[in-house]
Design goal:
By secondary structure, this protein is α/β, with parallel strands linked by helices. It folds into two domains: about 90 residues, Urease, subunit C, domain 1 (Roll), CATH 2.30.40.10; about 300 residues, Metal-dependent hydrolases (TIM Barrel, Alpha-Beta Barrel). The protein has 13 helices and 16 strands. Strands 1, 2, 3, 4, 5, 14, 15 and 16 form an eight-stranded mixed beta sheet that branches. α7 links the parallel β11 and β12. The longest helix has 17 residues. The relative contact order is 0.15.
Length: about 400
């Protein structure tokens, strides 16, 4: 029996101009024209409806600390890690939870219903970041499915005690294991250890990889080789990859094809990469942003995400994934409507594929996770950064946002 209906919905890829989406016991039970039932309803008024937006790469544990950190040296390179590291000893479980919760609420207000958050573990912060963020998993399951990825921001092979904390995080339920070999004296050693942990604990791999201003010394090559060796295609992701953007186009295409062939996805992080790249240059500064559309065209799956919010890595952000997609398309000078619409898929269907979510999307039998956007198409949603008017999680409404209304003066 239908217990709730979104009426007059517009679904991308469907010919019908208007459809009704019926919910039953937290799942989508019907998608029909003029669904006949007496259940309570929400009128989408012809707006675009999609599965909830998916944040594949964010750092809840170190968000909202910008005002606590030391001022940035002018156009410094690599100081962002140091500035955060100096603050970690002040983190408490309660502090992490409070800051993470505020950032999470911002993401919810912008239509996110599933999320993977990367959480740092090392002797400075211990397991406190994991505990603080994990406290939100059950408290906010009414609005979002939240999973953790533990990773060693400040090194693994050269940072004694970190490996044990990685293992502890995985034992406590982290569903992915990450890496940051750029901050390790032994890049291959860290990467190989992460693959070992992924196999031992049967979790996904999601790495911070190849951040830099030149294509030298790529770790992506080893990651591709190990993905084949361990037969983990479809379960490995790399984030940033700014070095890849510095290559000539044909070499970029070759790398993208290799990534696609072995099943390694790429997450693009526009806000952080634009803020941090090119700090060794005083003019004609490189953008340092991988062209996600180009990589997708070569068969590599891509997502677009927020990464950092209000900290030394990125002193901006409101949790809007549509803003990130718009920023990416704007900076990469994406002009074709189909490519702009493809950026929308990098917040939705492509992100679901990256996170191996088989029950994602508006289809009968799937969880009733639906966002109603104030747009008529994916293109408009990205191009105009259209806000969600309503969000539903497992059939229950979690957000309502009224449309802005103009009040022109009355005529005399």
């Amino acid at each position: 029996m239908i217990d709730y209906v979104i009426r007059n919905a517009r679904l991308h890829g469907r010919a019908e101009p208007s459809l009704d989406i019926g919910f039953a016991k937290g799942r989508i039970a019907a998608i029909e024209t003029s669904l006949v039932c007496d259940a309570p309803s929400f009128d989408a008024e012809g707006c675009l409806c999609c599965g909830g937006l998916i944040e594949t790469h964010i750092h809840l544990d170190k968000s909202r600390i910008y005002d606590r950190c030391a001022p940035e040296p002018a156009r410094s390179m690599g100081q962002h890690v140091k500035r955060v590291s100096e603050m970690k000893h002040t983190f408490t479980v309660e502090d992490v939870r409070a800051r993470a919760e505020e950032t999470l609420k911002g993401c919810l207000k912008n239509g996110t219903t599933r999320m993977r958050t990367h959480v740092e573990v090392d002797p400075r912060v211990g397991i406190r970041g994991v505990e603080g963020v994990q406290a939100l998993v059950d408290d906010y399951k009414w609005a979002i499915d939240l999973e953790l990825c533990v990773f060693p921001q400040e090194g693994l092979t050269n940072n004694p005690g970190t490996d044990e904390l990685m293992v502890e995080g995985l034992k406590r339920g982290a569903r992915a294991v990450g890496a940051a070999p750029g901050y390790d004296t032994d890049h291959p050693g860290q990467i190989r250890r992460v693959f070992e942990l992924a196999r031992e604990y049967d979790v996904e791999i999601d790495m911070h990889l190849d951040f830099g201003n030149s294509p030298d010394d790529l770790d992506t090559v080893l990651v591709c080789d190990l993905t084949e060796e361990y037969k983990l295609g479809g379960r490995v992701t790399i984030g940033h990859g700014t070095k890849l953007s510095t290559m000539e186009p044909e070499r970029q295409k070759a790398i993208a094809r290799r990534l696609g062939d072995v099943g390694v996805a790429v997450t693009i992080l526009p806000a952080t990469d634009l803020f941090l790249m090119g700090r060794d240059q005083e003019y004609n500064v490189k953008r340092g942003l991988v062209d996600a559309n180009l990589f997708v065209e070569q068969g590599c799956n891509c997502s677009i995400s927020s990464n950092n919010i209000l900290n030394p890595f990125t002193p901006f952000g409101d949790g809007s994934l549509l803003r990130m997609a718009n920023l990416h398309a704007n900076v990469l000078q994406v002009s074709h409507s189909e490519q702009i619409a493809e950026c929308f898929e990098m917040l939705t269907t492509r992100s679901a594929k990256l996170m191996n979510l088989p029950d994602y999307g508006i289809a009968v039998g799937n969880p009733a996770d639906v966002v109603v956007l104030d747009a008529v198409s994916p293109f408009q949603a990205v191009a105009e950064i259209r806000a969600p008017l309503a969000v539903f999680k497992r059939g229950a409404r979690t957000l309502t946002r009224p449309r802005a209304e103009l009040h022109p003066p009355r005529q005399a």
